[in-house]
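User: I'll paste a sequence; please echo it back and then give the predicted structure.

Assistant: Echoing your sequence first, then the prediction.
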Amino acid sequence: MTGPDPGTINPLPHHQKLVFLKNIIQNPNIIVGDYTYYDDLEDPLNFEKNVLYHFDFIGDKLHIGKFCAIASGVKFIMNGGNHETKPVSTYPFAIFGNGWEKITDGVDLKEKYPTKGDTTIGNDVWIGYEAVIMPGVTIGDGAVVATKAVVTKDVPPYSIVAGNPAQIVKMRFPDETIVKLQQIAWWDWDAEKITRNLHLINSDDVEALAACK
């Protein structure tokens, strides 16, 4: 036995509201790693409805790493939710057509509308109930995002953030330990090695984890 099949949708047969997220995603601009799960109080198959303002013409991507835990109601605001702020008006005239679309004639829409780039969630990240992740944010490996936090800027690896806007509450480990954990990158091990060393991954003995085979 080397853990659950990463290709299954419901790894817990008795709990149909938890899914391995990678296996239900349809949008090619949402990329999810193995074993990352989404647990929804209503319908986990609706995850993509929580990725908001994700328009094809902008082309921004949502990257989510391996072994992440995403709670119910987490929202990802993508770049399509941004409005222009340089013009006098922030109103999106062009989308209503009927002559108003002419303001985009000869315009590169990717340049016209503000974008902060892709949104990236690292590996082994825990995102709490109804947290909101704003566009272009990077959340580092091993980070924890508290319930209802609004993440407006990058989150360092192995930090815990909370609040609106989210602020660092504390670091989970000392700096030198964080560097070592990212070098170890246990989430990239094969299933057999992970299974063989679960007792160390589920411990705080980083030195032993670094030495394991």
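The chain is about 15% helix and 20% strand. The two ends are 18 Å apart (CA to CA).
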